[in-house]
Amino acid sequence: xxxxxELPLKFYLKKHFGFDTFKxxxxxxxxxxxxxxxxFVLMPTGGGKSLCYQLPALISDGMAxxxxxxxxxxxxxxxxxxxxxxxxxxxxxxxxxxxxxxxKLVKKDIVSGKTKLLYLAPESxxxxxxxxxxxKVKISFYAIDEAHCISEWGHDFRPEYxxxxxxxxxxxxxxxIALTATATPKVQNxxxxxLGMLEARVFKASFNRPNxxxxxxxxxxxxxxxxxxxxxxQNKSGIIYxxxxxxxxxxxxxxxxxxxxxxxxHAGMDTxxxxxxxxxxxxxxxxxxxxxxxxxMGIDKPDVRFVIHYDIPKSLEGYYQETGRAGRDGGEGRxxxxxxxxxxxxxxxxxxxxxxxEQEIGKQLLLETVSYTESSVCRRIQLLNYFGEVMEExxxxxxxxxxxxxxxEGEPYISKVLKTIITLNExxxxxHIANVIAGRVSxxxxxxFHNKIDVFGCGKEEDYKFWLGVIRHSLIFRLLNKxxxxxxxxxxxxKGHNYLEHPTSILIxxxxxxxxxxxxxENLNIGATSTxxxxxxxxxxxxxxxxxxxxxxxxxxxxxxxxxxxMAIHYPITMEEMQKIIGVGIGKAKRYGEEFINLINKxxxxxxxxxxxxxxxxxIVNKSGLKVFIIKxxxxxxxxxxxxxxxxxxxxxxxxxIEAIINSGTKLNISYYVDQIIDAEHQEEIFEYFAEDAETxxxxxxxxxxxxxxYSEEEIRLMRIKFISEIGH
Length: 729
What we know:
By secondary structure, the protein is an alpha/beta fold. The protein contains 35 helices and 17 strands. The strands form 4 sheets. The protein has a 7-stranded parallel sheet with strand order 3-4-2-5-6-1-7, with helices on both faces.
């Protein structure tokens, strides 16, 4: 690669980008590339990776090919580089979003030599006609952005990335620079090996982002927690990550109806809508984006103040990459993740149909995530250690450092778990082991006669959930393995066998209660307290007396006592809120309300009171039509599959809606449908379970109870709906 460089690099930096000095290792990276050498760049998000290939492209002969994984973000990257140049044709992208005419114009600019940077996806690079075209173009170098996509151990694995090296050799050899913000030593080696650049010079910046605050919260009332946090941080930009597109849409919708300017972003949306939503976030027309992991790569928004993971991610690399989008300007950046172990179990289930090797990789990555979330160790130390960087002292800027968890000696409990697993010939899953140790007679324990063996109940002083926690920690400490082919079966690792022979002290952090169910997103407007504030009641009655004397009316004519007490529960501070108080209509609110509102507002501010309204989340009102349709259809005794077809739903979605309807207090008679698909004897057995044996009445508990019986999940759900509707209402 021949460069036009005749003056010091800082001259070109100032000329093209307006900066006086380079950041971190940028200058060394660029010098290496201009010397015709391959480079591997590991820099955290916000470290300035883009400039490492943009500046050398501008001062080199020929055109640099930049391989980027997301079509939706290429425009943003091209716009960014064009903003520093007098000519738009200095940078282009080439992908499927362009028309034939637009592709012709791009290629014309490339042939003329005006284009210095061309962004394209690996899929575009591998097209035969593009390969033939690029053979005729002088390529200055190849930049592989988001290079972790090459590795199966990376969090965004893209098979197309593994085809890059053979294509480079077809087009013509030139220096290669691979860049990523996240790569463990294993991923780094995988990338370099695949790109044929094992001898490349490695530039590794510290992964420590001291300005980021890390916190993991139990996933209880998570939607309310999110809304409360955002409302306490008005006008700050933030990203909320969810694992599913459906959840993205739900959360975005519920934030909007609660007065938070929000847009969704996921791969299921059309390109135009995705781009529009991204641009509105960048232009600060909205404060919050709710997204799947499809959002964020290459986004250069320096003032994102919070990143919230509503769902825990599949790997620590993914988590680090996504949290890295906060505080890129060095300012405030809060990274909050909501966690419950059930989310991990869901992710484990999703892996079961995949090839064994892929399951093994996924299992290892999830294990690291669980270790991070449940451990009491400084969060930053754990993250840096994961990326092969050592940090000696606690950061004092994470929840574990600021509020240390209670620890207890885990050795006797871990030893008990390991011995039980060996006694049972290493052939059972964690829930079975926990049941045996806790002395809990599940249907499976009974079927294997494990309630008759010596170890049954050996840890009955603690409950089933406690022992599940000990098993999880044993997995984290690598004392246990989970089988891959027969997924979930526990066996001792070599380390576990050694531990049994030579046990040592292991401190276990006292677990959060992650098993508690999150609230139903449809029933979030139940949140008011029933506690009357006696001090406020006294102040309100004094005001009422004062007004009554002034107007020469009895106090009860102004507001009756139930109204005063309701004000001292809900703290109304707007006319709209006052109209919702018991016994207060529009007329009375307008006639007498203003003075009461002013008093309450002053009281709330002085006492720093957290009002119930601030915690109440409004329901998504536009779903009520669906509920009415379902209720009317059931009243008409229509078949459930017909109701589902009419609304383009599957049976699982329909049953979820019906469960929400009965949980909100509406009685439904579904016997006509149940009688068609479940015989009377089976109905009686399941009904009797809910009436007499169920401890919590949850679906998961019922599925566990009947897992060895020939009942489908749908049948159990239907009987649970029938039971709650008939007995609960």
